[in-house]
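Could you join me in thinking about how sequence relates to backbone shape in a protein? To get us started, please write out a protein record for me. Would you write everything just below, so we can both look at the same thing?
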Amino acid sequence: MIVVLNLFDIVPGKEKDYACYLRRVQPILDRYGARTLLYGLTRMVYMGNCRQQYCGIIAYPSLKDLRKLSHDPEFNDIRPLRDNST
């Protein structure tokens, strides 16, 4: 298993785009056996100077599955929704 930590903010006014990304990415995550372990507001920072408002921890069965997802054409179609809203 490989676990990815995502720290991010949502661009003001882009909340609907990010919500659309979340709806559309879930079936793709399912296809590669990925699981959302945690998603929500960042409550505290134990070490360092993290300032992002949101965090997500996603588990993939293997690095191979993460790579496949990252190159999936359907994922690449919706990637701009994520990139332009966070």
